[in-house]
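Quick one - first record:
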Amino acid sequence: MNSNEIKALDKERIVSTYARHDMVADHGKGVYCYDTDGRKYIDFTAGIGVNCLGYCDEGWIKAVTEQLGKVQHTSNLYYTEPQVSAAKKLTDRTGMSKVYFGNSGAEVNETAIKAARKYGATKKGASVTDIITLKNSFHGRTMGAMTATGQDVYHKDFTPLLDGFKYCEANNTDELKALVDENTCAIMMELIQGEGGVRPLDRSFVDAAAELCAKNDILLIIDEVQTGIGRTGRFFAYEHYGIRPDIVTFAKGIGGGLPLGGVLFGEKTCDVLQPGNHGTTFGGNPVACAGADHILGRIDENFLEEVRKKSAYLKAGLLEIPGVSEVSGMGFMMGVSLDAKAAADFVKDALAEGLMTLTAKEKVRLLPPLTITYEEIDEGLEIFKKAVK
């Protein structure tokens, strides 16, 4: 099919939950994506932070195809080596005790919510099930994750929401302290509010939240779905803050392009969920975990140091562009504020020039592959300048 036929069939046969851009992706390599007409784009989105090694990384392809030739799926009723190998790397790296594998960010956030409520109810009493999240947050689109999301725009038309959630203004320590009571089982937060505008939380607020949790035996849940797996220049963003969460959720980059997510549990939460409490048919799929195992082997401290250096280079280049007023975020998770151009208009113009970008509220959001080179950054910056004009 040509591009027009593909777009026409898409409109006819696929539910329109996304307003698609006018580009039909056909193939890619590294940071470059090519459409069905053969046009090349430099991708500063990485599939919304998923393709951490870029398109069609040879080592990742080798890992997943070798596993495809062995066992593509067998369910979680049986043991598989890729799952335990990836789990060992994750727990060794973080010092967390155990990991649960799911398929997506929303799904693993649902898992964390369930685990937190069981922890509170069984340890403190049946009423200890309230979870505090932050206004302007985003945790997913399933009912529990959507209720945890502190944005009315995502709640509209889908009420009634789940009971037991409270919302605190980000960085308002006094409000957070006032919201904590005898029925609070967890505080759940993104350390950089991604969909909310690429806004990092203040260190003092995060410290206060961690202290409240430790003092009152409340679980601290950190949503690292977008910030994790090297995206911010550390393996997890919570390392920038010097805290020790009880539960960490992650997805996107761990799969490198295949659906995979997970929940890391600390010592006091690792045995909360027992057989029958939760489950997933596809979670921890051996092919996806083989790819994850390869990615985890690649992202060492030297790799992360390169991410920090290259992201600083990209940020400096962006700030030199006339019309760019601010760059927020950490590492290769950036929000770019423009003086005189709407983010949505910029994304459209940048795509026409050959650069793939995203929006986050009023900002242009950039999530390039972690393997991008300095030369590719320069190429992207030149197109960025054109699109600003």
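second record:
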Amino acid sequence: MDNRPIGFFDSGVGGLTCIPALQKNLPNERVVFYGDTARTPYGSKSIDTIKKFSNQIADYLVSHNVKMIVIACNTISATCLDSLRRRHPDIPIIGVIEPIANRIAAEEKEEVRIGVIATKVTVASGAYSNIITSKNKKVKIFSKACPAFVPLIEEGIIDNEIMDLTIKYYLDDFIIDNNLEKIVLGCTHYPYLKKNFGRLYPDIKLLNPSEEVINEVERILREKDMLADENNSAMHLCYASDTSENFRNMIDAVFDEAQDVKIEFKKFQD
């Protein structure tokens, strides 16, 4: 047993979409979350900049004695996973891309056309396509960068006409032209738009890496006998580089009211 917390980090509030699945599957685990809300979005930044920011945050989580780090960001997972594992070889570090990509490759038995919507950096990396098609040639992957989604979500602009029009701008032709059956939400911010997608495209099945990554977290913790025990009374810690009202609202929406959650401000030098 190991009652140390699990570290999660993201470019902003998107990584919080992993937490409901953690609470459902592993309710005894505690979280140290860092959202880089002052420097979001990462998806249009250079890879060198993304690596610099990610190293800062990973080092900070390690200073909190976390037992595992979850890169709750597709952009960082696509560009920094290997380098972060080399930087901190004694801590299990999990990205959000590998678990869902491996599941898709293993489960699809017939030819299928799947869209991946993500940031510019994630799309350019080809991470989803490379993993999936190397293991299953029947899966056809089509990718689309949707850079306006993250800034709108970070501002809390979700359940309204502005967001619906933005979604339709990116996806109407993308879905039709490629005859898509399923779409991977290739950014941890995008699950906040599930209701929008369901309303606009009811026939498209959504695949959520934010949920699948928790299955990998559980597998590794069980394998290493690192699960927290039921008497774990530690509080959750949530840090942001800019403690906006939207960040606080998202924290309130994600964490159980009965749990102790402490929010603090921590900004790094660029």
